[in-house]
């Protein structure tokens, strides 16, 4: 009997231990920085602009980059750099929240503390409803509805 050489590489096993529930289990991403979609858009825009200005580095031009930029354009809640930075400053002051929770609050822009606790279950008990609502209202003020 002849054995054939596999035509593809062995698929890496995914260890599905990550969970963003009432207890955050982010695996290798547990204690790393996290960006809002608006911050991500700003970073990519700055990198691509810099590459264009320098002329030395090619700006990636493929479907993944194009679709990523389109997604960020649609779902970034804060369109002006000043607003993105203001939200980042507000969230940085929230020392009782971890980076993932902060980036989720800045991305989702929840209307109420109840909505925030449903969408980001790990913030339950970290802030009072009034404090969380005050934070959400402060973030909402910076949003531009265009």
Structural commentary:
It is a single chain. The protein has helices at residues 37-54, 63-75, 81-92, 99-108, 113-119, 129-141; strands at residues 19-20, 24-25. The protein is an all-alpha fold and 146 residues long. It has a single domain (35-142), classed as RNA Polymerase II, Rpb4 subunit (Growth Hormone, Chain: A, Up-down Bundle). It has a two-stranded antiparallel ribbon. Helix 1 (37-54) crosses helix 2 and helix 3 packs across helix 4 (99-108).
Averaging pLDDT over every residue, what do you get?
86
Number of strands: 2
User: Which residues form runs of ≥5 with pLDDT under 50?
Assistant: none
SSE string, helices as H and strands as E: EEHHHHHH
Helix content: 40-55%
| Order of strands in the sheet with most strands | 1-2
Task: Tell me the CATH superfamily.
Answer: RNA Polymerase II, Rpb4 subunit
Largest sheet: 2 strands, antiparallel
Q: Kindly provide the name of the CATH class.
A: Mainly Alpha
Helix/strand class: mainly alpha
> How many domains comprise the coordinates?
1
The gyration radius over C-alpha positions equals: 20 Å
CATH architecture descriptor text: Up-down Bundle
Strand content: under 5%
Number of helices: 6
Family: Belongs to the eukaryotic RPB4 RNA polymerase subunit family.
GO molecular function, one term: nucleotide binding
Pfam family, one: RNA_pol_Rpb4
Keywords: Nucleus
């Amino acid at each position: 009997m002849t054995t054939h050489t596999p035509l593809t590489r062995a698929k890496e096993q995914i260890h599905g231990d990550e969970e963003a529930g009432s207890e955050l289990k982010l695996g290798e991403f547990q204690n790393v920085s996290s960006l809002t979609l608006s911050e991500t858009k700003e970073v990519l825009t700055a990198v691509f602009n810099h590459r264009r200005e320098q002329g030395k580095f090619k700006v990636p031009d493929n479907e993944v980059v194009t679709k990523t930029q389109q997604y960020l354009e649609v779902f970034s809640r804060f369109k002006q750099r000043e607003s993105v930075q203001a939200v980042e400053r507000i969230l940085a002051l929230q020392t009782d929240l971890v980076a993932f929770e902060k980036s989720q609050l800045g991305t989702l822009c929840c209307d109420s503390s109840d909505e925030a606790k449903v969408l980001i279950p790990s913030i339950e008990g970290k802030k009072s409803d009034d404090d969380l609502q005050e934070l959400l209202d402060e973030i909402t003020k910076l949003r531009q509805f265009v």
